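The records we work with from here on pair a chain with its fold. A complete example follows; check for yourself that the lines match position by position.
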Amino acid sequence: MNTSPAAGRTERPLRADAARNRARLLQVAAEALAEDGATPLEAIAQRAGVGIGTLYRHFPERGALLEAAYRQEVSELCDAAPALLDGRLAVEALREWMGRFVRYAAAKRGMGAALRTAVGSDSPLFGQTRDRIIAALDLLLDAGRADGSVRPDVDGEQVMLAMGGVWNVPDSDRWAEQVRGLLDLVVDGLRYGAADPRS
């Protein structure tokens, strides 16, 4: 039995200002690391408008910041799926979600090597991420089958495989544009054979 003082202790919620600082650091870190995975922590703190001590209070080392920023990008992407379905055809929600996937892909591309070094290439983080993205896709596809706006014979796993082509798009000034075009092709393929002619 664990009788240490820490046993059973729950983590206290952050004060409002501390929570804002943490959220701002994660937002800035994701943007900065998408641009350059080697961005110094000092530059991230400065861009977020906080001192380096504040950054270290939330994230005691670089790997912790990288992992938290990556998890935040994944959560924002996956948590958006239900809201995007509100009041529109599922295929249009899916197209909007694919646009958000571009931001996620940019962040992962920028911080990928540094993140794998920080958490280990065999970390369960990457499998968990894939499962979450497939679940978000399945939610959108289920809605598309229900409203007839996507073909009925595909699932999230298949769409995820089709989306894997984004990782083969070479670096260039047109990277985001080319990725969007590729994902548009995926969505157009999902419309083929759909029951609803509006799709």
